[in-house]
Description:
25% strand; 35% helix; Dna Ligase, domain 1
Amino acid sequence: MPDMLRSTLASETLSQPERTQLLRLARQALIEGVCGRPLTLLDPDSLLARLRQPGSSFVTLLAGGELRGCIGGLEPTMPLAEDVRQHAVSAALEDFRFLPIRPEELTGVTIEISCLTPVQALEYRGADDLLAKLRPNIDGVVLVDGSRRATFLPQVWEKVPEPEKFLALLCRKMGAAPDLWRRKNLSVLVYQVEEFHE
Length: 198
């Protein structure tokens, strides 16, 4: 499964014009959203073909190299271009960890877009097997416990390279005890991303 998923991602890598258009659309939506204006209606004919297809993304906003907002979705529910626009606005205004971005902050904010591969279930037997099967710096991870779920993008491995700590922090993000992943077989999903930024 991992090798097949990796080759699928490689064959579907966005072109530079597609990346450029997504970043431009995200920036325009960010400005409109933060300034309280409705988003400009998208003209499908103006979009490159890949961006009209369903896709899922996370949009991360950084200010001075520090996280300022991050919102996304795991399942494709709309065209990739619209998905990126909606998440750019949500990351600026609706990330509960931060105050909404103000118009005067916009020039200091940079945009990072992560386009996701389809989410796949990770089969494992016990905590040690889970640790052995995780791929730091490659896999984004979703933990699910009943109605609770949380995810970390693969980029989080750069700051939290130890799998045990990664899973503990992800449990906390989900609102659970940090050792829940050791005590209970949670549903674990993985995905990869194509990340690019301004």
